[in-house]
What does this fold into?
Amino acid sequence: MTKAPKLDPAGCREVLVNPGARVIIDMDDTTGKKGRGITKGENAAEFKTEASAILKQHAPMQYARWKKIPTDRKKMLWLAMKQKFNLQENVEIKKVVFEQLNRQYRSLRHKLHDHYAKNKDDEKIFEQPPDGITVENWQVLIDYFESDEFKILSILTCSYKLRWLSGRLSEILVTINGLNGHRKDCYGQFINVTIKSYVEVSDRNKRNRDKLKMAHTCGTRSITQYCYEERDLETGQEPTPTSTWMKNRFSNKKKDWIDDASREAYEDIMKLQNEGGVDTEGPVSEDEAFIKVLGPEKPSRLRGCGDGLKPPSKRGESINQELAKENEELRKQADADRECTQSLMRENKELASRLDSLESQFSQIPTILQNLTQMTQFVQTPPNNMKILGVGGKVYG
It folds into this structure.
């Protein structure tokens, strides 16, 4: 695949693909203990770039969220991705692809809005859409950007700090007061509920962010991509979660840990591996030490694997077990049916052989009957010159 040129302000350009060839995309095991997969490998970056190009070509941009895009359009996007990449028709793989398209859709719409915001005072903005966007779609998108719904939603979603939100309440009220009747009441109720929930979510996110003590050196690469690049080329074995965590929190440039929390965690892990802990009977394995120090996996993601990979839910595990049991029963039934079919075929073959033998015997019956008839006639009416020896040596004829 030819690498795409540098992105323009509104999105990405079309990526050239070798004619007649489909690019292979690696994904983590979607059925194993790692749960849901994520794209990785040599073509992972091209996959993301191509996703943006396909979105610009096929996806309607006037929808506020990915989930509101019609199903038929999503099917079109899936087919377009399959034409460029070697993707199996699999529910889990399709879910991974759609999650990537969802992220790219949000990013692309954000870039398009930035382009609109910088050029909205230009009289020719309607006639000069960004590269890859048709004039018709660009006009629809501008109409949406200028709608009351988008203005209110953008005020709320962009105000990710509570003090920003309180400072823009007057702007929200001005927008609402410009509406009439039922729409005004609906938006007023919507704003009240949204502000209340937003304050709660904002406070919770702030508390969670304050708890984050460890940074990493992975940059924009996903942990999955990092593991792929650091794998053993001969065996294909990827680094363990513990070694991955360590390498992404140690600065090779400074030859030191990037923060005190990472250093302390590393020392605790090494101590558990070498000496054990209060609640352990001697040294523990690397994985056990990793879990004891950093905590077990969470429902939302796998420890040390970053964004994208999620552990299978209990409901998913239960469903997989049921499906595995059903598959095993179906396999046994198929084997029994196959054996029965083979047995019937053998019996049919034997019956066919016996039938051929009987047909051969039946075909000889007319000849036998004819011979018997001739013999009977011969006995009843012998030739004139033939003498027959009777009882007591008496000669007849």
